[in-house]
Amino acid sequence: MTQTAAPAVPLPIRIPIREIVPWAVFVVLLALIALYFVSAEQGATAVFANMYVHEFVHDGRHLLAFPCH
Questions:
Q1: CA torsion angle 23 24 28 33 (round to 10)
Q2: d(Cα 64, Cα 27) in Å, to the nearest integer?
Q3: Which residues, in sequence order, are CB contacts of 60 under 8 Å at separation 6+?
Q4: What does the DSSP assignment read for 1-69?
Q5: What band does 62 get if pLDDT is binned at 50, 70 and 90?
Q6: What percentage of the chain carries pLDDT values higher than 70?
Q7: Cα–Cα dist 45/67, whole Å
Q8: Cα separations (Å) of 52 from 16, 56, 58?
Q9: What pTM was estimated for this model as a whole?
Q10: Cα–chain-centroid distance for residue 27?
């Protein structure tokens, strides 16, 4: 007598949303801070008085099509 194997039923993948949400919020916050420094720093809402931040993100500003001069 031969036995045939039953086809394996794949189990659904469980995504732990409660573990992902704090990291997603952290990444979005970092992205918004980076976007602020690239887009608005040394403008009307400048946090730092010198031009160091502007010069540091100058090429990124042009790459993302933000005018700066």
A1: 0
A2: 19
A3: 38
A4: ---PPPPPPPPPPPP-HHHHHHHHHHHHHHHHHHHHHHHTTTSTT-SSSSSHHHHHTHHHHHHTT----
A5: confident
A6: 80
A7: 15
A8: 41, 6, 10
A9: 0.58
A10: 5
Q: What is the pLDDT of residue 41?
A: 63
Query: Distance of CA 36 to CAs 32, 39, 52, Å?
Result: 6, 5, 15
Phi, psi (rounded to 5 degrees) for 27: -65, -40
Phi, psi (deg, nearest 5) at residue 48: -105, 145
Q: Is the pLDDT of residue 26 over 90?
A: yes
Specify the pLDDT at position 28.
97
